[in-house]
Give the backbone structure.
Amino acid sequence: VRELASSQGMPEWQVLAMLELFHQLGVLFHFPSPAELREIVVIQPQWLVSGICKVIFDWKLHEQPMHKQIKLEMKSTYDAWKKKGIVSKRLLERLWGEEEAATSHRAFFTKFMEEVSLLCEVETDTFLVPSLLPEAPSAPRDELFEFEIEALDPISNMAPEGAPLQTKNAFPLQEFMPAARK
């Protein structure tokens, strides 16, 4: 986009303003930050959805032959993905394609999924996919890891004064978070 605009004499600031406007209108997806997102302009939303759906899907309905091959070649990685919602960078590379042209796309998908909380890094090159976590098992209260989130104002990204904390989930920490294993 920048090269095309530059060849037409359009200054950089106008390109960014145009991309922001088109993003707000829903014509395309462009994220000004972080850097991994800034360099790609998504003009076909299905491309973005398809990339996400290679990681997050209903196992009963959408398991593909590629997944069976991954299970054979990367059994422990596959099991962590399916049973605990843990994915490695190596698995993401496999799912999103290993060819050199896909390198920037993999970085884009990873950062996008982190930005919208579909993925969170728990260790270097290891991610938790919250939507793939199994239902919270029943365990004695003192064995559960609890985390809380604040009710944030979407405009200021700050908690309203006096807003109560809400418990989101509780699960045995050592079972799901690689960094917390014994």
